[in-house]
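I can't quite decide. Please look over this sequence plus structure tokens:

:::
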Amino acid sequence: MRTVLRRPDFRLLFVGLLASMAAESILLLALAVWVKDLTGSDGLAGATIFAVIAPMTLAPLVGWFVDRHPRRPFFVVANLVTAALLTPLFAVGDRTDVWIIYVVAALYGLSYVTLSAALSGLIRQLVPADLLAEANGVLQTVRQGLRLIGPLAGAGLYAAVGGWLLAALAMVGFGVAAAVVGALRVPESPAETAALRWPAELGAGLRHLAGEPALRRALFGYGLGSLVMGFSESLIFAYVDRGLGRDAAFVGVLVTVQGIGGLLGGLLSAGVVRRVGEVGTLAAGVALFGPAALALAYPSLWLGFAAVLLAGVSLPLTMVGLHTLIQRRTPAGLIGRVAAAAEAVVGGPQALSIGAGALLVGVLDYRLLFALIGLATLLAGSYLWHHRTLTPPPAPTHHPPLPTPRRPVDHEVVATTRRRRGH
């Protein structure tokens, strides 16, 4: 990871993303806790996450729009718009205002797809192909590491002063991200900003995903796992409430423990890509979610900590494997549409599963649903592992250390030294 962090352009991008990821880490869970607090419903709390993911169905349109604009300025404007979208949260007062949280969550979900598509192209422009896994690993390490403090901080601030302060802090984070990335200088290729035909180019991302064997099988396997993985967004509230007998804010503790696993997974992810390739890394991430879900079928605090820790390890492996695969197997001018289409292919099933989970948690025993998640993700991981040979581990590339600046020669000192030596 030190190699990619030596690059000044990536370091600047990293600082900007750190601000926006901090905003995300304190905001997302707090919205669900806010709904749970206002309504007392596990299903409605889980539906908040559904509202965030549902806009991913618009990803092909979003990707087409992203590919029409230069990456850096688009990313800056999108962060500023995201900050503005959070302002309606200041109007939330009681149960009757829950719809405002859902609307903001949906708009935030649309913004998230947009920012992700633009970021994929921006990283592709800044980082050499052989360092993409490192770059994605660094970002995932930080994103998951923020779970160590973000959810607890968000839950604590919500309990102390309510959701309005969380909204204000998140707005500041997105504003800082816009300011820092705005200072980045990225040369834009004319091919990446040229006008694209409508609607012929709208489906170009999906066509590329369907035509590239590794991407097609990776998204098929991951999509199968996503059909049930989303159940956990609602089930975790039932697990805490019915299983552990604690209030909804304790979900923040579990997510923090998950962040420890995410930090470990992020640190390991680039090395895993070098050993088993992108599809193999994706397979490992999906498969690890299986035993984690099976463990959550039994309500035990310490077993639950171990389960969410393992789930945390799985997430960055999945994301780094998928994002690196997309960036390496996609032409630069198409990457916005491909990244957004990938979000739709994975996010669509995940949104359906979150919605289904919000309904099923009120009908079926949550332990049965966790067992179903565990078995299904183990099968999806096995399918992906079978196809890992489509992306063999990349050949190692030597990156020489940055040259040490030479000190200017002081000719007067040299002459004096020679006289003293008798020259």
